[in-house]
Amino acid sequence: MNTFVAAALATLVAPIALSAEPAPAALSRATLAHDHAAANAKAKQAAQSIGIPPPTEPGVKQKMVYRELSALSGEQFDRHFVAGMVKDHKDDIAKYQKEAQNGSGPAADYARQILPDLQKHLQIAEGLQARQKTASAADASKMK
Hints:
This protein has 144 residues and is mostly helical. The protein is built from 5 helices and no strands.
């Protein structure tokens, strides 16, 4: 069994959290949600071609993250969501690069197809994180 595809499917079936965010961040999250839906369809195709049944619900890790985020709101939610996006996309890029370079067949093809989107998502998440840090620094300087 190809563990890369199984892990990819478990991650992609997880819900994408959206908050009531100003337009730029909301658009970025809408892009992420759209791209994740497309990646999920490609992952399912790759899984079917190698005989792996796709999961019907998020995995344990994804459920835990969803529960943690569900308990947050406002700026606290946004900070945790974006920090998780940065970390997860960095981790995923490393795994997908490894599969794309060392793997073969449908799983490696899938990894090569998805890598550009993962890199784009990382840039979006890092941009959101930079804006959050800038806003926090501006707020802190107003308090002085």
